[in-house]
Every structure is written in C-alpha cells, then in structure tokens.
C-alpha cells in the first residue's frame, strides 16, 4: 500500500489527524504554554471577576469583565494553535542533487591517473529588488535555499523566511505562521495587562469599602496579589518580545537576520519603508503551502548515470583491472627470461666455456619437454644440484657433476690410447 507524504516524512515533525496538523519535535511544550495561560485566567475568573459582577450595577456591565476575560483567552489560544499546528513554510526536499549544477573535473590525479571528481557551486547569487543576494546549497534537503530561507536544525527542514524556532509553541516561525505568532504574542501582552488592571481595580474597590489600607485589601484578596505579580513578570517576557518584533516588522527583518548581521552595517534588500513593511507582513495574502502532506508518495524511477561520467570512464581503458593484469603478466614473463639468461651466462663463466653448447642444448630440451609453465622449476633444480648459479660460497661440484665429468674422462682415454 502506498504511503502518504506525512508517513514518509524525513524531518522531525509530528503529525495529527492524518497529516492535517503538523507540529515540531518539541510539541509537548505546548501543554506548558497552554497551562501558563489557562490556569491564571481560571483563578482570575473565580476569585476576581466574579466579585466584580456587582461593582458595575449599570446595565449589568460587571458581566463584561468576565466575558472579556474568557473571550480574550480563547482568542489567544486560537492564535497559539494556528501558530503551532500550521506549516511554517517548509521547502520540499529534492530526491537528488541538482544535476544541471554539477560538473566533472578530470584534472584530479590519483595514483598517477586522472580521476573525475564531482564539483558544484556552494553559493549562488540572485537579484532581489535590484541587489545581489547570496543563496546557499543545503546538503540535507539537496536544494538551493530561496532568499531568506534557512535550515532549522531542530525540525530538520528548510523554512522560507525563517525567523526562529520557538520552543514555547513547539514550531518553527516562518513565512506562513509569523503573522499568527506576532498576534499571539501581542494578544498575550494585552491579556496580561487586562488581568493586571482588573486585579488592581478590585483592590481599589476593597480599599474604598471595608478595607481602607492596601495591606488589609491584599489580605482580603491574596489571589489578586498573586495574579498581579504573575502578570508583571510575564509582561517582561511577552511585552519585550512584542516590542522587539514591532521593530523587526518596521525594518522588515527576521530574528535570524538581526542576530546574524547585527554588526555588518549592511543595507537590507527587503526594507520598503515602515508602512509598507507592516503591510507586507500583516496584511498581504499568505502563500499556499508548498507541501501536500496527505498526498501519496510517488515511486521514483532510477536515474541513468551522467553521460559525462560515462565518457570519462570510457576514455581511460588503461586503468581497467584486466589491462593491468595483462601488463603484470608481461612484466613477469620478461623477468623470468632475464633470470634464465643470467643463469646461462653465469654457467658459461664458471665452466670457462667448457661444454657450453651441450649445457644449452640440455636445458633447451628440458624446457621443451616440460613446457613454458614449468620453466622456472627446471632451471632452479639444475642450479640447485650444482654450485654454478651462486656468486659466493663453496665452489665444490655436486656428485652428479663429478660423475658426469669422470665418465667423460674415461670415454676419452681409449681414443687417446688409439692415437698413440
């Protein structure tokens, strides 16, 4: 059965509802973020907002305090889910490197032979708004990253207009969810301000009634004090984050670009002015996702080897193993002939030219009888039974040679007597 894209996904993302929701690998931190929002609001509704219902008698406006708190909380949670469950702008991976960008360098020499090596440019330059922008090649995704795209090491994906990876939402922040992330952070800031203001108002109502001092009013409603402290601390984080991203939107930067190029004093190719930058980030239509997680994975056909590589291999027949073995055999045969010829010369020198013709004839006959494959053992056995093939050591002849010389001497004696 064919798999869907989310089932064969190579990144570290997690999926729910059959690939309809996509999370980062640290999606569990989302429960902590939700609890940090919901628990304080529940405490506020039970111990503060309920007591404020009768403080605004006109038109039952006290109920608005509770309704606004609940509606604001739901709004923040929806923005959180839209940020963490949405495709941030993942660029699909390639199944193989871009072949048109590769070249074969035949100048590489290994072992005395030219071996083709695979080379391709790591950085390319593209024109963006009249300025040259460098784009890099991603080894993991096997693509040239689009401008402002970066690879997230946590999710193991290339993300368009990569801002950062937020552990609080468990997702990368990129082109397709940055707007919801900013709205989530700014709405959380407003919620903190609202809860802090309502708690302070309730303390003020207590001081105007039966608890004239601040300390007595705080003892009467300790929940208000705890919530005020909590909101004050949270404002330093979400409030500071909101201000920082307001600056980034106004200058059309990302968090990644701001930290990386902070000291370069470079002119941004994407800065179109304060108002236009806000319109681009918050008001333009969000691009559709480039990945279809519910689509079926297509079987990839095997690609033929590159023609340039085949051509390089065909141009090097001398480097094949068969030719190398044949060369080695020819060299070995030449060495055997040289060794045999040297043995002949040494025998001639030691015998002083005596019976050299008979010796060469005997050796030649033995070679013909045994064959070319056993030439070396014949020569070695002959030399082994005598001392003719040695350059040093004893010069005593072997018993076989002595017997041959004595028989030859005895055969010559009758001829000498007859001549006499």
From TrEMBL:
<feature type="region of interest" description="Disordered">
    <location>
        <begin position="298"/>
        <end position="325"/>
    </location>
</feature>
<feature type="transmembrane region" description="Helical">
    <location>
        <begin position="30"/>
        <end position="53"/>
    </location>
</feature>
<keyword id="KW-0472">Membrane</keyword>
<keyword id="KW-1133">Transmembrane helix</keyword>
<dbReference type="InterPro" id="IPR039859">
    <property type="entry name" value="PFA4/ZDH16/20/ERF2-like"/>
</dbReference>
<dbReference type="Pfam" id="PF01529">
    <property type="entry name" value="DHHC"/>
</dbReference>
<keyword id="KW-0012">Acyltransferase</keyword>
<dbReference type="InterPro" id="IPR001594">
    <property type="entry name" value="Palmitoyltrfase_DHHC"/>
</dbReference>
<keyword id="KW-0812">Transmembrane</keyword>
<keyword id="KW-0808">Transferase</keyword>
<feature type="transmembrane region" description="Helical">
    <location>
        <begin position="223"/>
        <end position="250"/>
    </location>
</feature>
<feature type="region of interest" description="Disordered">
    <location>
        <begin position="381"/>
        <end position="420"/>
    </location>
</feature>
<comment type="similarity">
    <text>Belongs to the DHHC palmitoyltransferase family.</text>
</comment>
<dbReference type="GO" id="GO:0005783">
    <property type="term" value="C:endoplasmic reticulum"/>
</dbReference>
<feature type="transmembrane region" description="Helical">
    <location>
        <begin position="59"/>
        <end position="83"/>
    </location>
</feature>
<keyword id="KW-0449">Lipoprotein</keyword>
<dbReference type="GO" id="GO:0006612">
    <property type="term" value="P:protein targeting to membrane"/>
</dbReference>
<feature type="compositionally biased region" description="Polar residues">
    <location>
        <begin position="404"/>
        <end position="420"/>
    </location>
</feature>
<dbReference type="GO" id="GO:0005794">
    <property type="term" value="C:Golgi apparatus"/>
</dbReference>
<feature type="domain" description="Palmitoyltransferase DHHC">
    <location>
        <begin position="136"/>
        <end position="260"/>
    </location>
</feature>
<dbReference type="GO" id="GO:0019706">
    <property type="term" value="F:protein-cysteine S-palmitoyltransferase activity"/>
</dbReference>
<keyword id="KW-0564">Palmitate</keyword>
<protein>
    <recommendedName>
        <fullName>S-acyltransferase</fullName>
        <ecNumber>2.3.1.225</ecNumber>
    </recommendedName>
</protein>
<feature type="transmembrane region" description="Helical">
    <location>
        <begin position="180"/>
        <end position="203"/>
    </location>
</feature>
């Amino acid at each position: 059965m064919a798999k869907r894209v989310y089932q064969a996904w190579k990144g570290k993302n997690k999926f729910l509802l059959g690939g309809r929701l996509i999370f980062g690998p640290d999606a569990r931190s989302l429960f902590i973020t939700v609890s940090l929002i919901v628990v304080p609001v529940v405490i506020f509704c039970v111990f503060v907002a309920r007591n404020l219902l009768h403080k605004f008698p006109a038109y039952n406006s006290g109920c608005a305090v509770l309704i606004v708190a609940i509606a604001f909380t739901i709004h923040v949670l929806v923005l959180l889910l839209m940020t963490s469950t949405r495709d941030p702008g993942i660029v699909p991976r390639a199944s193989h490197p871009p072949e048109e960008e590769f070249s074969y360098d035949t100048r590489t020499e290994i072992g005395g032979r030219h071996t083709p090596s695979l080379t391709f440019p790591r950085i390319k330059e593209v024109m963006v708004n009249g300025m040259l922008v460098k784009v890099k090649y991603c080894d993991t995704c096997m693509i040239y990253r689009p401008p402002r795209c970066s690879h997230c090491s946590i999710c193991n994906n290339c993300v368009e207009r990569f801002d950062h990876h937020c552990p609080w939402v468990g997702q990368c922040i990129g082109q397709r969810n940055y707007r919801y992330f900013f709205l989530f952070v700014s709405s959380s800031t407003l919620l903190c301000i609202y809860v802090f203001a309502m708690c302070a108002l309730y303390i003020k109502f207590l001081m105007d009634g039966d608890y004239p001092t601040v300390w007595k009013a705080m003892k009467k409603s300790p929940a208000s004090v705890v919530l005020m402290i909590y909101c004050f601390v949270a404002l330093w984080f979400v409030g500071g984050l909101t201000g920082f991203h307001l600056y980034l939107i106004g200058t059309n930067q990302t968090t990644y670009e701001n930290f990386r190029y902070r000291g370069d004093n470079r002119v941004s190719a994407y800065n179109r002015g304060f108002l236009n930058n806000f319109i681009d980030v918050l008001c333009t239509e969000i691009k559709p996702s480039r990945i279809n997680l519910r689509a079926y994975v297509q079987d990839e056909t095997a690609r033929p080897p590159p023609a340039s590589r085949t051509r390089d291999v065909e141009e090097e027949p001398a480097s094949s193993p068969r030719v190398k073995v044949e060369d080695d055999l020819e060299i070995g045969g030449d060495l055997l002939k040289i060794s045999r010829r040297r043995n002949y010369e040494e025998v001639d020198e030691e015998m002083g030219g005596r019976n050299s013709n008979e010796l060469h004839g005997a050796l030649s006959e033995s070679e013909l009888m045994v064959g070319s494959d056993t030439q070396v053992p014949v020569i070695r056995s002959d030399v082994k039974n005598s001392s003719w093939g040695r350059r040093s050591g004893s010069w005593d002849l072997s018993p076989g040679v002595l017997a041959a010389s004595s028989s030859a001497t005895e055969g010559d004696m009758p001829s000498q007597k007859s001549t006499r």
